[in-house]
Design a protein that fits this description.
Elements: E1 4-9, H1 13-24, E2 29-35, H2 39-48, E3 54-55, H3 57-61, E4 68-71, H4 75-87, E5 91-94, H5 102-115, E6 119-121, H6 129-139, E7 146-154, H7 174-191, E8 194-202, E9 207-209, E10 220-222, E11 228-235, E12 240-246, E13 257-261, E14 264-268, E15 278-282, H8 283-290, H9 295-302, E16 311-314, H10 328-339, H11 347-366, E17 370-371
Parallel strand pairs: 1-2, 1-4, 2-3, 4-5, 5-6, 7-12
Antiparallel strand pairs: 7-13, 8-11, 8-17, 9-10, 11-12, 13-14, 14-15, 15-16
Helix pairs in contact: 4-5, 5-11, 7-11
Length: about 400
Amino acid sequence: MRKVKIGVIGCGVISNTYLTNITNMYKTLEVVAVADMFKEKAEETAKRFNIPNSCTVSELLANPEIEIVLNLTIPAAHTEINIAALEAGKHVYCEKPLALNLEDAKKTLEIAKNKGLMVGCAPDTFLGAGIQTCKKIIDEGWIGEPVAATANMICHGHESWHPAPEFYYKEGAGPMMDMGPYYITALVSLLGPISKTHCFAKKSFNQRTITSTSPLKGKKVDVDVLTHYSGTMEFKNGVIANINMSFDIWHSNLPCLEIYGTAGTLIVPDPNMFGGPVKILRGENMLDSVEGLSTGEAVVKIHSPEMLNFVKEIPLMYHHIAMNARGLGLLDMAYSLVKGRKHRANGELMYHVTEALTSFDKSANEGMIYKMTSTCEIPKPIPLGLEVGELD
């Protein structure tokens, strides 16, 4: 396959991971220019990754070589940069979220449609070995028909370890907009579109103190967003899922992500990662273990640690994408550009995810059940047996 030319806007921390993967693994992608609001950042990044051009945003968008703009700016700038790139005739792949609100997301997709251009968006972790293995397990009926799910991202915020955590407490962030995309995208890719949501949410602390080892240590950060969400989703296929997203809790034993079926339980790896252990428990094994026991003996055994013996780890089926493969969504877009197929981390999917993310705030603030207005297709699975850097 021919090389697809990429221009990167935004040379912050996350650009290092993208550019490392593009230059080392994704040989069908070629970064020809980088831009940043701070010229020295772009120059430093270009030098580090041997990229021929460091320039301003306007210069990058005017470059006729560039086919896809990789937008790695802060969330507040996503819509502005995405639209500018589309107006310049470029396809766009954006870091999450697609937009801070549904109106901006819709406007972005409408411009893309009118111009015949593609929009893609992170997270692309659902394309990794962990979620793709889970997809195969569900599609082949290993846990029967899915009936319920739980998703939980529980921590006490980022100020204890992140060198510059202020962003996480501003518009476009908080636990739902920052971490929710990983969990909801994974669930939609496995279960299909969402029909309704409901949520209670609150802000537990008006200020945070940065305690990480950084020049900002001791600085007070005003909290502008909700920081604890307890929500419910009803999927169009009838699955009911709860979701807990919090920056307010010191410790929890809640599972990261689990899907419950008529024939068993699927323990899904952290959707913020590309790999991780995939585990399954088959209900028939539990039934066999208590056959012939008295009521009391059966109750004791079912609730004993011995039941953990029936949880089996399933080998990952996609070893080439088990590592930190950030940029897979961009690579998939490049394949779609060359081969004329639909890319997986597409605008339709990410608009649906964005609507779900923003619906939790709306439900919590207005005390209502939110009925989703959008839908999407379940992305096609990644084929088995591919080499590193291949998606077809």
